[in-house]
Amino acid sequence: MAIPYLPFLLVWSYGKALLFSISSMFSQNIIAIPCILAIAVSGKKLYNSITKDKRKENIKLEVCRHTIFSLCMLIGLGIASCVEAYISSNLMVAIIQYL
User: How far separated are the first and last CA of the chain, in Å rounded?
Assistant: First the structure.
C-alpha cells in the first residue's frame, strides 16, 4: 500500500536534503568562489603585463595594482569565512528546526 507514496516521500526527503545543503554551502561560496576566480584572473593579467612590457616602472605599477586587488579579495575571503562560521551555522540550525 505504501508503494504509490514512495516517489512523493523520496522527492520530499531529497528536497529537505537539497534545502539543507544549499543553506550550509551556498551562502559562503557565493562570496568565496568569485574572489578566488578574480585573484586568478588578476595574477594572469599581471603575468601577461610583465612578459609583454619589460620597463621597471610599469612592472612596479602592475605589481602594486595586483597587491592592492589581492588584499581586497583577501578581505572578501575573510567575510566569506565569517559567513561560514557564524551565519551559515545559525542558518543550518534554523533549517533543521524547520524541517
Answer: 26
Residue 15 lies in a domain: no
pTM above threshold 0.70: yes
Residue 34 identity (one-letter amino acid): P
| Domain of residue 64, residue span | 28-98
Q: Is the residue at 66 inside a domain?
A: yes
Dump pLDDT digits (tens) for 51-77.
Answer: 888 777 788 888 999 999 999 999 999
Tell me how many domains the chain contains. Answer: 1
Q: Has residue 3 been placed in a domain?
A: no
Sequence letter at residue 56? K
Residue 43 corresponds to which amino acid?
Answer: G
- Count CB-CB contacts under 10 A for residue 80: 21
